[in-house]
Write a sequence for this structure.
């Protein structure tokens, strides 16, 4: 299997892994390709760097959700461990690192595939779009069905991996949280709005997370908005709010207005724009819940099967 002499290794939950290469990094974490020293199987190792006790709690929330959700369309957790920092790191105000070992998906993300299609001047077939959406929605349903319900809050093509057989897998639960929140004070509103600005991607963020109002509430239908944007991206290869974003317009205002334009002569049936418009309601209470979305997609797929 080759010699790993001199290669960096680390221990996670009593298992030894060798670091092979850096796969990527985000605002709060790094991802490395690692190999299990015993089985030689490869995994992704997500390192979450925490700078405070509050960040530690957020990181541990991700672990908690991954351990409690067991579904083929949600990324599983192989093992994890928390590591206190050494003396030198404390100069950087780092309190700890959390190591999460997760599967490697060689086919990459849906965003990778969307980028490839755009470069080639191609698009998904309508059947492929509904199949992908059904899988993503089933993963989201697993989060929403938890007691209490969890919301992902950062659903986007970048956060959906694909298995070798094309099965979509919802990943990156670092933004996930208890879905139903009562906003009773200005401080509650400010706190949630700041958290959303930090962790929820603008192009897929629900309007109620751009401007959080006092004496209001949010629930899991923040994810339904994001799913509507994901459906648009699968069909038209970009977020429905890409144009106002590129112009430098206010995305908060653009989402509140929810004036969605659909490309002409896309080759798709009216079911795609109709379903997107049904999900992208600026008022959360007018949006469907995940079970209704799944039922609608199932009905569309059933119609298509009968037509064939």
């Amino acid at each position: 299997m080759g010699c790993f002499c001199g290669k960096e290794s680390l221990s996670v939950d009593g298992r030894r892994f060798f670091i092979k290469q850096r796969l990527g990094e985000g605002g709060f974490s790094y991802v490395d390709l690692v190999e299990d020293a015993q089985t030689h199987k490869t995994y992704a190792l997500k390192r979450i760097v925490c700078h405070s006790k509050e960040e530690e709690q957020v990181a541990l929330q991700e672990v908690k959700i991954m351990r409690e959700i067991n579904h083929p369309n949600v990324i599983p957790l192989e093992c994890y461990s928390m590591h206190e920092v050494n003396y030198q790191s404390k100069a950087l105000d780092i309190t700890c690192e959390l190591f999460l070992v997760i599967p490697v998906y060689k086919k990459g993300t849906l965003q990778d595939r969307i980028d490839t299609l755009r470069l080639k001047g191609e698009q998904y077939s309508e059947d492929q779009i509904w199949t992908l959406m059904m899988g993503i929605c089933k993963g989201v349903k697993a989060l929403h069905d938890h007691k209490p319900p969890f919301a992902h809050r950062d659903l986007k093509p970048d956060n959906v991996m694909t298995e070798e057989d094309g099965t979509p897998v919802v990943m990156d639960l670092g933004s996930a949280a208890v879905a139903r929140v009562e906003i009773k004070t200005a401080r509650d509103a400010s706190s949630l709005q700041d958290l959303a600005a930090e962790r929820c991607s603008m192009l897929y963020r629900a309007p109620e997370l751009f401007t959080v109002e006092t004496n209001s509430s949010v629930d899991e239908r923040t994810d339904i908005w994001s799913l509507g944007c994901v459906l648009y991206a699968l069909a038209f290869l970009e977020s429905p709010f890409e144009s106002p974003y590129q112009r430098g317009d206010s995305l908060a205002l653009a989402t509140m207005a929810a004036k969605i334009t659909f490309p002409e002569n896309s080759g798709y049936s009216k079911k795609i724009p109709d379903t997107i418009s049904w999900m992208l309601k600026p008022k959360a209470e007018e949006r469907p819940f995940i079970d209704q979305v799944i039922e609608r997609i199932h009905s569309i797929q059933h119609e298509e099967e009968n037509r064939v």
The chain has a mean pLDDT of 92.
